Amino acid sequence: MKKALIVDDDRAIRRTLELHLIEEGFEVLTAEDGLRGVELALQEPVDMVLLDLRLPKLDGFEALQQIKRKKPGLPVVMITAYDDMHTAIEAIRLGAIDHLGKPLDLDQLDEVITKISDMASLAKSGIPFCDTTECAFQPNVIVGRSKSMKAVYKTIGAVADNRASVLLYGESGTGKEMVARAIHFNGQYRNHPFIPLVCSSLAPNVLESELFGHEKGAFTGAIKQKLGKFELAQGGTLFLDEISEISPDIQLKLLRFLQEREFERVGGNETIKADVRIITASNKDLAALVSQGAFRQDLYYRLKVVTIELPTLRERQEDIPLLVQYFLEKIRRELGRSVEMIPEETMQQLKRYPWPGNVRELENALRRAVLLSPSDILLPETLQLEESSPQKRLPLLIKSIQEVEKEHIENILHFTGYEKKRAAQILNISRPTLNARIRSYGIEVP
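^ that's the sequence the OP posted. Answer follows.
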């Protein structure tokens, strides 16, 4: 029989989980503090640990580290009421197989149990698998508790401590640079440089110099040696946004760096080695550009060792209230103006709007609204959202029902060569009704 360990200081939660796991066929052990939890996890042949974050004697993160040091293959699921970005990233980084928030969704727990069971089956079959493991208001935090954002956090936790190349996909404004920063600053290389560069903002020759540096006299205006971003990011992370816009020559140079971890400055002969993790981002489909011959296939595969697709804001509308709260606090600190109340009408307007500019557009809209609000209440009219006009999309709406019906009958009569029997069948009305409509609308029949 499978054996599970529940470590939680809340007796009611322990009992609820215990009864559920017994129904799922588990033998269950329980502990109410971190020290006892670690002791049982290391002594007993358990197949899974459900571990609370806030525990007496030893907190959940420390307990997780002690368990993983001695039993690295033991699946541990972190459960916490502090269901935010930092705990999710830290839990995955330290080796938890998943991170679940309270109040606990038992269906979601069952999904995790199924994943653990599937992984155990793979391990027994000899197939290698890896579902591995530093992260109130803080700058550069990613806000969201939706399922899609939790998936992003888990991937960040999995890649934060290694040098694998990461490719970020997402529409403009979805927070690609924020994710790149989260990968860098939540990993073991956080004390090394993080260098961002938007590739589309520079001409090809300037971009080449920015990336690889140049020697004195390499070209007109090169009055002294310049170090490039690869040298400046030594030991850290270089984030290249809009990677789809780089020229074929720079694609080739970037490919060589990813293969050999070395390069030469523009106009120089010295080969320079650099230990730099590359994170790239694009709002275009690189695979499509490869098929069109606009992007090197070998470079594409080098960049996409790990791919993270960022959801649009309209795909995670449940995060809007959290984002609003976060941005209003950020704006209060930056501008010294606060909003104490958000009417339901305002919140509904924020939820209905499609946000084509995503999170960046939401922040800008809130900043404008705070500046325009005459009081500490965020009024709907201060948002100034550009709602699309249905009249522009559907010009027929300016006509009456009678006018639309008359035109439709005229079209059907013309289509049938004014054969009334067939026209009535297409219109799904009787012949007498069709004659009545023709007389009523004054439709001329040859």
